Amino acid sequence: MNYRGSYRHLLHNAKAALLAAIEIYNKPRIEYRDECFVILLLNAWELALKALLSKRGRSIYYPKKRKEPYRTLSLKDAISRAEALFPSKTPSLPIRRNLEMLSIYRDNAVHFYNAAGFGSIIYALAQTSIVNLKDLFEYGFSVRLADEITWHLLPLGLEPPIDPIQYIAKQPATSKETSAAVRQFLTELAKSTEELETAGADTARFLTVFSVKLESTKKIERADVVVGVQAHTDESGPLVVTRTADPNVTHPLRARDVVERIGNLHGRKFTSFVLQAILSEHGLKSKPEYCWKAAEGVLVKYSHDVVAFIKRLSQPEVEAAVAGYKSKIKKRQRRRGAAA
Q1: Closest C-alpha to 37, from 113, 130, 157
Q2: What are φ and ψ of residue 292, in 5° steps?
Q3: What tens digit of pLDDT does each residue of 212-232 get?
Q4: 3-state DSSP of the chain
Q5: Closest C-alpha to 100, from 205, 243, 14
């Protein structure tokens, strides 16, 4: 009995399973797409991990029990035994967490049928997993999967793809429209993200948002919002929290920069007074996506989104903001005069 198996045969089947998964996902019309895709993707990973063990002379079988057939390792045990053999360019911890999240979905897929848009989370996890597997093939076996696949695909869709980060942000801690299984899945996603960040691991190996051109556009640790964890009765549910990020990157503009970038608005020169009026009347200074304040309360900076927000305002909205701001100033002055 060859307890190692043939790593070449295992690797061949792993590649075949992955290509089948990609072909199924890219079919223009197929039901049960996500479930079939994830099953084949995880099968590809299991075979690839066993190939890695086999190549290093390790057994891919459990110890034989009397009167029972030989059993090869499960995906979970294959990960545990193979992660010490991972190439240095494929860190094991985030890859393991990625596979665990996909395994949860595969093992409990029946619970996720009623979650609109949930496929965006699976897509982001699975796309990251494919990149990880591609790198394992390349750095562990010197096999370039890119040579096996044509990327000249014709995208066709009636709706734009959902950003997984936006999907997470919109999920309340409890909702009749969102199943308990989905909330618990997002909670596990949050826990894994927090663990990886604490360990200093690369979260891009766990969950990365990709554009349709398969170019990485944002790592989850750089997202504007991430999911946190909040206990609610007997369940754990997701809670959107704002991440503190480097304001030099996210909020590079001072007030004068905002004024300069807007220039003219509705045929009139845009001034710092109009800016302060809009900021005040629309409460933009209290919204972290638009404004960042230093802890000392001296430095205030703005994101590029505030420029886009102001340019979208109609002329009546701008005039109403200015009138309201002037009214606030007059009331404040009267209160000061009365106090004096």
Answers
A1: 130
A2: -125, 135
A3: 444 455 565 555 544 444 444
A4: CCCCCCHHHHHHHHHHHHHHHHHHHCCCCCCCHHHHHHHHHHHHHHHHHHHHHHHCCCCCECCCCCCCCCCECCHHHHHHHHHHHCCCCCCHHHHHHHHHHHHHHHHCHHHHCCCCCCHHHHHHHHHHHHHHHHHHHHHHHCCCHHHHCCCCCCCCCCCCCCCHHHHHHHCCCCCCCCCHHHHHHHHHHHHHHHHHHHCCCCHHHCCEEECCCCCEEEEHHHCCEEEEEEEECCEEEEEEEECCCCHHHHCCECHHHHHHHHCEECCEECCHHHHHHHHHHCCHHHCCCCEEECCCCCCEEECHHHHHHHHHCCHHHHHHHHHHHHHHHHHHHHHHHHHC
A5: 205
Residues in contact with 42: Cβ distance below 8 Å, sequence separation at least 6, in sequence order: 75, 99, 102, 103, 106
Tens of pLDDT, residues 154-208 = 555 545 556 676 666 666 555 554 567 777 788 888 888 888 888 888 888 888 7
Residues contacting 48, CB < 8 A, separation 6+ = 10, 11, 14, 133, 136, 137
Give the number of residues written for the chain.
340
Question: Please, which residues have CB within 8 angstroms of residue 335's CB and are 6 or more apart in sequence?
Answer: none
Report how far residue 74's alpha carbon sits from residue 62's, in angstroms, rounded to the nearest whole number: 9
- Per-residue pLDDT, averaged over 87-92, amounts to 89
Query: In this structure, what token pair is assigned to residue 256?
Result: 């004068």
Instruction: Give Cα 302 to chain centroid, integer Å.
Output: 24
N- to C-terminal Cα distance for the chain? 97
Whether the per-residue pLDDT at 81 is higher than 80: the answer is yes
**Partner residues linked to 231 by β-bridges:** 236
Task: Give the highest mean pLDDT range of 42-51, 55-64, 65-74, 281-290.
Answer: 42-51
Name every residue whose Cβ is closer than 8 Å to that of residue 118 and which is 6 or more positions away in sequence: 112, 167, 182
Q: Is the pTM of this model over 0.85?
A: no
